């Protein structure tokens, strides 16, 4: 202990570390304030079926901070998890996504699946499924229009309990997607026993698709495996026409990425909803 922190004991923190901690504390405070004052927003990124039809929107958290600018959810979520705020924030995200979907429906736009990211701490709560049921009832969203995205590590942490939780969720009628597939513990022996509807292949595999010694064999195998288990496959982070062409050729069901659109505000997403198909995927040329 002493070797690590030196003789001065209490003066363990460097000024640099101190300012990181201060910034983190400020951010946490700003988040608590935002939660009560409508300071968070959701953006929506379209997912297209390989025939070009709009398949879903993924809701992604956004935090426009007056000084720090747009703070990434990759930064927000860990802070929210450490401070227990994640449960309240996660509830806000879920309710807002469901409400937005209903607003689109009420505006006469077609129904579309909405995918919401769920953190480990939300999923671990005994009453999570009950909570989801309450939000569905309160907002009036049909359960079949809601998809929950969970990472592999979240699902296999306490396998028996996760299985029960997923089964409760499935009974509600919502669908389950495995997010960032291939990056967590790839406990394939567990996966086939869980009630999973979709695998989302992590962006890193899509990016390295056409490199020499790239990930094509892995991506092909994931697609084949998922299909044999009756699951649907989503590719995340599709950025180039070449990636798109390869994924379509390999029968990847759904594509999501900057090539089609970044996450956008609800009003812009409504335009994608009204159009219904993506021209990149409906035009005949594949490259
Ligand atoms: P994710 O669920 O894997 O979401 C996909 C991330 O990739 C999003 O980043 C999206 O903007 C980005 N992305 C999409 N297409 C492309 C592409 O073509 N290229 C590149 N480079 N990136 C692309 P974002 O919005 O910054 O979110 C990061 C992560 O934060 C999410 O990863 C998710 O794990 C987490 N997150 C976001 N919103 C929420 C939320 O409401 N609740 C929870 N628990 N986690 C969230
Ligand atoms: Mg996701
Ligand atoms: Mg993902
Ligand atoms: Mg990801």
TrEMBL record:
Domain of life, per lineage: Bacteria
Residues annotated as domain EAL: 24-277
Protein name: Diguanylate cyclase/phosphodiesterase
Species in which this protein is naturally found: Granulicella tundricola (strain ATCC BAA-1859 / DSM 23138 / MP5ACTX9)
Portion of the full sequence shown: 557 to 843 of 862
């Amino acid at each position: 202990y002493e070797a690590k922190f030196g003789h001065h004991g209490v003066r363990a923190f460097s000024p640099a570390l101190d300012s990181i901690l201060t910034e983190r504390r400020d951010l946490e405070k700003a988040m608590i304030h935002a939660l009560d004052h409508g300071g968070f927003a959701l953006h929506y990124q379209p997912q297209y079926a390989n025939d070009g039809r709009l398949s879903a929107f993924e809701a992604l958290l956004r935090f426009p901070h007056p000084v720090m600018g747009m703070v990434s959810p990759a930064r927000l979520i860990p802070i929210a998890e450490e401070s227990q705020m994640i449960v309240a924030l996660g509830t806000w995200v879920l309710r807002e996504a469901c409400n937005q979907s209903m607003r689109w429906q009420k505006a006469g736009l077609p129904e579309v699946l909405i995918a919401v990211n769920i953190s480990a701490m939300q999923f671990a709560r005994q009453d999570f499924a009950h909570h989801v049921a309450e939000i569905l009832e309160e907002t009036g969203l049909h359960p079949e229009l809601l998809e929950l995205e969970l990472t592999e590590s979240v699902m296999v942490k306490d396998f028996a309990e996760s299985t029960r939780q997923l089964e409760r969720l499935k009974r509600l009628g919502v669908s389950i997607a495995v997010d960032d597939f291939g990056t967590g513990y790839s406990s394939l022996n567990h996966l086939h026993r869980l009630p999973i509807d979709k695998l989302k292949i992590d962006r890193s595999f899509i990016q390295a698709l056409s490199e020499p010694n790239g990930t094509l064999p892995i991506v092909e195998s994931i697609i084949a495996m998922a299909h044999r288990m009756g699951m649907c496959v989503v590719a995340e982070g599709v950025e180039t026409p070449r990636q798109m062409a390869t994924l379509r050729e390999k029968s990847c069901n759904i594509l999501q990425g900057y090539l089609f659109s970044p996450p956008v505000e609800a009003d812009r997403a409504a335009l994608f909803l009204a159009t219904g198909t993506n021209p990149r995927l409906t035009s005949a040329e594949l490259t």
